[in-house]
Amino acid sequence: MDDLDRLLNKKLKEPEFKKEWDKLELRYAVIRQLIKIRNTYNLSQAQLAEKLNTTQSVISRIENGTVNIGIDFLDKLARSFDKKVEIRLV
Length: 90
Description:
mainly alpha
């Protein structure tokens, strides 16, 4: 476990931090998946943007969490890599 994991585990014991973390966890999970796919295929943000018919700045804003993406964008991303979006409520 690295220092970041230790700090996160400590902070998650604080009720207010945990509440905010839980609220944003899904958004950041999607962002991590987007970055993982981009890195798996060795694509720059600009290359991914071209593949998705958008701009590098849009990809950057998505990856740094300043814009919220919708299901249509997720579907477009998945289809461009011959994948499917899977949504589960657990």
